[in-house]
């Protein structure tokens, strides 16, 4: 264990120093940072495997910092620490790639064994064949050769070098965030930050404070000034995912940012100005939302300076197997092939969740697979609807127990990651483990 390096990012200096001392006594080499910016700099300077990151930092959201660290160093494992955890934050942290998310009150009981497990996971990342392969960046990260996709890429490459606002339209799971990242990385803003937020994932009040920030004392719990995502993205790009779900009063404030680059923090009287390139995305028909009174017409026309429609996966049949092969290589350290039946099942399936559904399907299938060939019987029941593939005598509870155990084993007992792979909530996972008497690892 001695010599393994970790980084603590926490602006509460006394707590940071205390936690560092505890972990140093366990034999770890500990680096400390009191801001997100300091932490990112230390990550570039040292060979750090695990990061403990506070959720509330003076210059970053610790949860958004997870995505940024994972983008730069995907092999690093991050544990989010918070004084007051919320379900929304834990879900977002998990989605962004956090190893785990715990409240600071649990530190004494959980932090040391959790850090040990995080190092085990980081070691696997470092030694696995797939983690050594650099993740594709920019437009290289968009996998496919179908005509609709190539047309979308061509359009995106044309708009990327400009300052134009871009509106990405497409069903959930079609890769809008991947396109937004590619546009940012091919723009003059590429050397600055890309900040992203899902407007449908958090409540209106929290969304406003996350976007615009607040002054100390603006509301109960606002113990210090906080920069919002707009300030953090100054000189870079702000990606507003699912903007069709943004409340009307927030739409008016975003319109002002688009018009003159100004905004006002919560609890502040002074106007701030930023230089931000805006990319927005939605799965909704915004013109229909305008007619219903749910979306501002003036904002719609401001956003749709350059509109890009992303094709759904069922319209990209040529790309399904290419994407499947990419995800197999990404999630498996060994050479795995797809049987003919497996390939045909993928091609015939109605991909309602698009690329995201395909990615999750491949990842779950690899967990269940025990050979070098993926067979169609490993796919979910929705892929195998014929009577020959069903067995009424099977005990569904037993199947569920074994499946949960296998996924828990695959994630080394990480409940957050297990819940994500199973497609259920964290509370549901704990309830099922209690119900079936599954050990808590």
UniProtKB/TrEMBL annotation:
The modification 4-aspartylphosphate is found at residue 54. InterPro entries: AAA+_ATPase, AAA_lid_NorR, CheY-like_superfamily, Homeodomain-like_sf, HTH_Fis, P-loop_NTPase, Sig_transdc_resp-reg_receiver, Sigma_54_int. Residues 142-367 form the Sigma-54 factor interaction domain. It comes from the Bacteria. Keywords: ATP-binding, Nucleotide-binding, Phosphoprotein, Transcription, Transcription regulation. Residues 5-119 form the Response regulatory domain. It holds the Pfam family Response_reg. This is Sigma-54-dependent transcriptional regulator. It comes from Pedobacter ureilyticus.
